[in-house]
């Protein structure tokens, strides 16, 4: 098995490093600059020596550069890498461009998962996304398989689009829920999270299984007056977010034949008034 060296003891790096070590890969060393990183390394990688980046690199066959996105290029280009090594970053947004010109074989390997940095993370259900030259494919697939995970390959020119899809689904979901929590609290709901949990859990499960065919609610039913009443009770950014997502929902159900053109036009008239996020006058 390849020897793994970890540059940076952030949340993702320590999680992946700990998982590889648990799978039997020798994690030979980790570098950790801040006190928080050193504490995290001590907690999650207790038997791994903390060394300088140069020392970590000198001991490893695979060098994981687990640093913030904007620092990948500078950190990687400062390492004493050789042609016998692989240099791997864990960013979702970047492909191989931050690693261009290095002696080592470059790999972009992203685990689309959230990491707390507190506890070990199970990676068996994660589908890693990789971008790499053909010479690295065998090593990447072995590393991921050892974790019990899967790997998919994305072209260099599609990395930004790939990452946009993840952010839109995960980060923007948090924004949407924060808005929904606020609306429910204004309506007098004491515990929005408990109220929404069963509905959200079922909706997410159904959508992951059936895609947009899992849609239910007033737009699918053609309840224009209900949507108008919702918007009348909302304001500011939440109103415009609701309206924009409602427009996208109308498009989906028109495309699959569940909403007729006349009802879609009525929805359009109502939703257009809220495009700016301000209540109609």
TrEMBL record:
Residues 4-111 form the Putative oxidoreductase/dehydrogenase Rossmann-like domain. It comes from Kribbella antibiotica. Residues 127-249 form the DUF2520 domain. This is DUF2520 domain-containing protein. It comes from the Bacteria. Pfam families: DUF2520, Rossmann-like.
């Amino acid at each position: 098995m390849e020897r793994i060296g970890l540059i940076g003891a952030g949340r993702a790096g320590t999680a992946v490093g700990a998982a590889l070590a648990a799978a039997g890969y020798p994690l030979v060393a980790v570098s950790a600059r801040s006190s928080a990183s050193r504490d995290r390394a001590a907690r999650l990688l207790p038997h791994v020596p903390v060394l300088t980046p140069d020392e970590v690199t000198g001991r490893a066959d695979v060098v994981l550069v687990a640093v913030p996105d904007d620092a990948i290029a500078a950190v990687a280009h400062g390492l004493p890498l050789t042609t016998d090594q692989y240099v791997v970053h864990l960013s979702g947004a970047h492909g191989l461009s931050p690693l261009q010109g290095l002696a080592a074989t470059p790999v972009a390997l992203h685990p689309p998962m959230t990491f707390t940095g507190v506890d070990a993370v199970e990676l068996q259900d994660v589908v890693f996304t990789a971008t790499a030259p053909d010479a690295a494919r065998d090593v990447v697939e072995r590393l991921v398989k050892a974790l019990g995970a899967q790997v998919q390959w994305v072209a260099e020119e599609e990395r930004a689009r790939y990452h946009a899809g993840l952010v839109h689904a995960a980060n923007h979901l948090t924004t949407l829920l924060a808005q929904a929590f606020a609306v429910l609290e204004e309506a007098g709901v004491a515990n929005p999270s408990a109220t929404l949990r069963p509905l959200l859990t079922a909706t997410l499960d159904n959508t992951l299984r059936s895609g947009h065919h899992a849609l239910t609610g007033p737009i699918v039913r053609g309840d224009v007056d209900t949507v108008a009443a919702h918007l009348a009770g909302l304001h500011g950014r939440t109103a415009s977010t609701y309206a924009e997502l409602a427009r996208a929902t109308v498009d989906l159900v028109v495309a699959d034949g569940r909403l007729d053109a006349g009802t879609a036009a009525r929805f359009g008239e109502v939703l257009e008034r809220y495009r700016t996020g301000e209540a109609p006058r």
